[in-house]
């Protein structure tokens, strides 16, 4: 059993001068399972926090240079290592800003790839097959590097492993249509060579993936003719010299007469593999798909169509698949479990259902904690929900089709009656999530066709389950905005994990446009606000740990109006009034807490009017003063935004509308306060920097083991 869940965009892809997509060089693990290092096929290395879809740091080589292998993170030191122009080695840390000023070493030979290990030195694989540990290479960067490969032999793929605390490097090469495999051991330095041959008739390996288990490496090769072969590589071969490595056929994809050119393979858990760029069946012939196959039963378990075309690039890390397509890099979580033959065959029968059905399991309605709810309804109430047949073993698609037929053409009240037994339970299973998606899509279709039909309570119940996503029902949130159902829009922002930046900005624009008087009769979740927020509620701002009296030169250079503030005051030294009502505050807080990517959000923020931007900035200023004071270290409320989120949104609005704000007379006072605040913070960090050395020296002092009740110590700082 395997399932592909709804994905999300991590970043965009750079385009070359010809307009074609460059893709990316590679993706490597970061400091933990929620961080990855993305190396663009140009000159950029970026560290992303996956759950936030947000870059944490980015470094770029100067114009004319190109990063030639994926950057990795040193497992022992936390430093990043990359190579540009094949021979120039760079090492840097998170706090480094200028890529040109980081450590640099020029090597004597061209590098093919750098591989990082969790508790060992990174391994450097040179293009001619030599392998060095990073520390040994840094000791003498210009040391001679031997040629292991023969002429015209080219490295196609490589991977590293750790066995008994000893590093291993496996890499494949190609020469004149023949394919070879090398296993490099260190300590002692031993190299094993294998001949894996070719498939003939134009068939050649185009994708590799390998795993290490029980002192044996399992290598799976995807050939251009659609065959997936398995090869077992022993860590302790008995014979010397070049050996022929036998292979067994795992899977035969329906490629027909055409050959695969841009495809990739990745090994997953429990006998599953992921393949991108190959058709799942001869009838479709569509190659822009990501598929999960069960290798034990040779069955398709899940598939996902990739918009814009796939580029044959696929990575797997911490339960997520990373694939490039169109103009983006998409992350798709997945799940694999041990499969039985019945479950595998059950999935085959469901491959013709809608794409939203990614789970291969057969639905067992007995697993849902139903009681005979429909039978217990009062006399005269319609009991269409009894068609679910709680004790039946009907498949998921059949049962859902029955329910969808029941809600077609009936009134809003009857829809609520039919769905009440189903929505009253919330089992933790992928099947329940799929059912919800089917119901939501069907209801949205009917709302679009019939303007008078709007089952608000059912839609709210669906959103509150936390099992839906924007990808599974894209019109859900937009329908709420069209109906001016701000409560439903708030629920979507709270529970949908993958709302696009364009939709987030549409919600922001709608929330800023609605009048506070129009929200009086609207039901809104107020967990994200406190009673102090609302029109007329004022707050005396206090400094966050530092309130210097700024010098004359620290004030604004020009006199801006209307600044009835002392020129020595900062952004938080003012008495503020919340510019919006309590319910609008709750809605805006959901926007501030939402996940986004800055590069995708900025273009849409420019659609806001100057008045909307000023109002939002004033509200952000009010929130910052509340959260940065000596008393209010965190805003009250279960869903209150953090100070980091507030400052990030201030920066985004200024980036998107700075020129407009400078020209708007009503924004001059706000900009003046922002200017003073930034100068105050710069002054604070400058003062902290002056005592940084002193604090470091204090930390190095060896404290006495035993100190009495009273002691005098003399500390000399140089």
TrEMBL record:
<dbReference type="InterPro" id="IPR036322">
    <property type="entry name" value="WD40_repeat_dom_sf"/>
</dbReference>
<dbReference type="GO" id="GO:0030490">
    <property type="term" value="P:maturation of SSU-rRNA"/>
</dbReference>
<dbReference type="InterPro" id="IPR048897">
    <property type="entry name" value="Nol11_C"/>
</dbReference>
<protein>
    <submittedName>
        <fullName>Nucleolar protein 11-like</fullName>
    </submittedName>
</protein>
<dbReference type="InterPro" id="IPR012584">
    <property type="entry name" value="NOL11_N"/>
</dbReference>
<feature type="domain" description="Nucleolar protein 11 N-terminal">
    <location>
        <begin position="1"/>
        <end position="335"/>
    </location>
</feature>
<dbReference type="InterPro" id="IPR042859">
    <property type="entry name" value="NOL11"/>
</dbReference>
<dbReference type="GO" id="GO:0005730">
    <property type="term" value="C:nucleolus"/>
</dbReference>
<keyword id="KW-0698">rRNA processing</keyword>
<dbReference type="GO" id="GO:0003723">
    <property type="term" value="F:RNA binding"/>
</dbReference>
<keyword id="KW-0805">Transcription regulation</keyword>
<feature type="domain" description="Nucleolar protein 11 C-terminal">
    <location>
        <begin position="403"/>
        <end position="718"/>
    </location>
</feature>
<keyword id="KW-0804">Transcription</keyword>
<dbReference type="Pfam" id="PF08168">
    <property type="entry name" value="NOL11_N"/>
</dbReference>
<keyword id="KW-0539">Nucleus</keyword>
<keyword id="KW-0010">Activator</keyword>
<dbReference type="Pfam" id="PF20998">
    <property type="entry name" value="Nol11_C"/>
</dbReference>
């Amino acid at each position: 059993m395997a399932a592909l869940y709804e994905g999300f965009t991590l970043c965009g892809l750079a385009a070359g001068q010809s307009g074609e997509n460059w893709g990316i060089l590679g993706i490597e693990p970061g400091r933990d399972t929620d961080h990855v290092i993305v190396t663009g096929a140009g000159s950029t290395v970026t560290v992303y926090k996956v759950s936030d879809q947000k870059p944490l740091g980015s470094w770029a080589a100067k114009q004319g240079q190109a990063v030639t292998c994926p950057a990795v993170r040193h497992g022992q030191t936390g430093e990043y290592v990359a190579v540009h122009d094949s021979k120039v080695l760079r090492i840097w840390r998170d706090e480094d800003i200028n890529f040109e000023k980081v450590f640099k070493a020029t090597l004597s030979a061209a590098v093919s790839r750098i591989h990082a290990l969790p508790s060992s030195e990174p391994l450097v694989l040179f293009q001619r097959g030599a392998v060095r540990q990073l520390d040994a290479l840094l000791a003498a960067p210009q040391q001679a590097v031997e040629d292991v490969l023969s002429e015209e032999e080219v490295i196609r793929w490589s991977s590293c492993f750790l066995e008994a605390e000893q590093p291993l490097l496996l890499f494949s090469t190609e020469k004149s249509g023949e394919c070879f495999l090398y296993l490099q051991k260190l300590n002692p330095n031993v190299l094993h060579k294998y001949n894996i041959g070719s498939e003939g008739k134009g068939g050649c390996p185009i994708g590799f993936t390998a795993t290490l288990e029980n002192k044996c490496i399992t290598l799976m090769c995807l050939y251009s003719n659609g065959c997936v072969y398995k090869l077992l590589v022993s860590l302790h071969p008995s014979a010397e010299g070049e050996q022929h490595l036998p292979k067994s056929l795992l899977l035969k994809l329906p490629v027909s007469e055409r050959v695969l050119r841009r495809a990739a393979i990745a090994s997953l858990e429990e006998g599953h593999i992921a393949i991108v760029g190959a058709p799942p069946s001869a009838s479709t012939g569509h190659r822009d798909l990501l598929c999960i196959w069960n290798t034990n039963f040779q069955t398709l378990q899940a598939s996902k169509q990739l918009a814009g075309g796939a580029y044959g690039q696929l990575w797997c890390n911490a339960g997520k698949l990373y694939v490039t397509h169109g103009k983006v890099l998409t992350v798709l979580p997945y799940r694999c479990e041990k499969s039985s033959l019945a479950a595998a065959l059950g999935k085959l029968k469901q491959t013709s259902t809608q794409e939203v059905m990614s789970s291969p399991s057969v639905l067992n309605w007995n697993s849902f904690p139903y009681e005979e709810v429909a039978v217990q309804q009062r006399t005269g109430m319609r009991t269409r929900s009894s068609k679910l047949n709680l004790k039946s073993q009907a498949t998921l698609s059949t049962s859902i089709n029955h329910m969808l037929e029941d809600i077609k053409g009936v009134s809003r009240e009857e829809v609520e009656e039919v769905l009440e037994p189903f929505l009253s339970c919330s089992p933790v299973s992928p099947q329940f999530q799929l059912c919800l998606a089917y119901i939501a899509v069907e209801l949205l279709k009917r709302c679009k066709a019939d303007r008078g039909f709007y089952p608000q309570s059912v839609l709210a119940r669906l959103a509150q389950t936390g099992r839906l996503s924007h990808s599974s029902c894209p019109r859900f949130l937009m329908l709420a905005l069209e109906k001016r159902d701000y409560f439903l829009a708030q629920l979507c922002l709270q529970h949908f994990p993958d709302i696009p930046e364009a939709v987030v900005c549409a919600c922001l624009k709608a929330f800023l446009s609605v009048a506070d008087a129009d929200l009086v009769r609207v039901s809104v979740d107020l967990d994200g606000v406190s009673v102090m927020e609302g029109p007329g509620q004022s707050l005396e701002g206090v400094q966050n740990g530092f309130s210097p009296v700024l010098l004359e030169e620290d004030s604004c250079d020009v006199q801006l109006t209307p600044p009835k503030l002392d020129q020595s005051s900062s952004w938080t030294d003012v008495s503020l009034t919340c510019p919006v009502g309590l319910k609008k505050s709750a809605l805006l807080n959901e926007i501030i807490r939402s996940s986004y990517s800055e590069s995708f959000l900025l273009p849409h923020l420019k659609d806001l009017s100057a008045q909307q931007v000023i109002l939002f900035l004033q509200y952000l200023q009010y929130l910052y003063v509340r959260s940065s004071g000596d008393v209010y270290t965190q805003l009250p409320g279960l869903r209150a935004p953090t100070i980091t989120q507030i400052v990030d949104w201030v920066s985004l609005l200024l980036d998107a509308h700075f020129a407009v704000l400078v020209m708007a007379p009503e924004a001059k006072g706000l900009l003046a306060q922002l200017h003073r605040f930034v100068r105050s913070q710069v002054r604070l960090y400058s003062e902290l920097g002056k005592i940084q050395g002193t604090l470091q020296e204090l930390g190095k002092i060896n404290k006495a083991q035993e100190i009495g009740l009273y002691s005098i110590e003399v500390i000399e700082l140089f």
